[in-house]
Amino acid sequence: MKRSTTLFAALILALAAVSLAFAAEGNARKGKYLYRQKCRSCHGVSASDLSPSSKTQAEWKKAFAKPEAIKCYKDWKGVTPEEKNDIFAYLHDFAKDSPSPAKCN
């Protein structure tokens, strides 16, 4: 009985750690909404046509590693760090080399 309780507690802790790791990455579903709300107003209209499948996952990681180097960074004033993580998650998860690349913007 004691062994099964210890095993169950270890399993719960492992699941909690995994869920926290995924939560820190950002929410791609929210990111898709935020991208359409905050980024599509320029990208595809007056700026370059940009979509998740415009870059590979490694290229998105490199771009967001130094976001101040992104040309439109100065226009991100109203975007919170959490929203930036969500947008990154969307762009990264649907990049052209991802298991499920974006089909349309």
Please give a structural write-up:
This protein is mostly helical. The protein has a domain of 68 residues. It is 55% helix and 0% strand. The radius of gyration is 18 Å and the shape is elongated. The termini are far apart. The relative contact order is 0.19. About 11% of the residues have low confidence.
Topology:
Elements: H1 2-25, H2 28-39, H3 57-65, H4 81-93
Helix pairs in contact: 2-4, 3-4
Number of strands: 0
Biggest sheet layout? none
| Class from secondary-structure proportions | mainly alpha
Return Rg in Å: 18 Å
Q: Name the poorly predicted regions.
A: 13-24
Kindly, what is the distance between the CA atoms of the first and last residues, rounded to a whole number of angstroms? 54 Å
What average pLDDT do the residues reach?
A: 78
Distinctive features:
105 residues, 55% helix, 4 helices, mainly alpha
Quick rundown:
The chain has 105 residues and is mostly helical. The chain has helices at residues 2-25, 28-39, 57-65, 81-93.
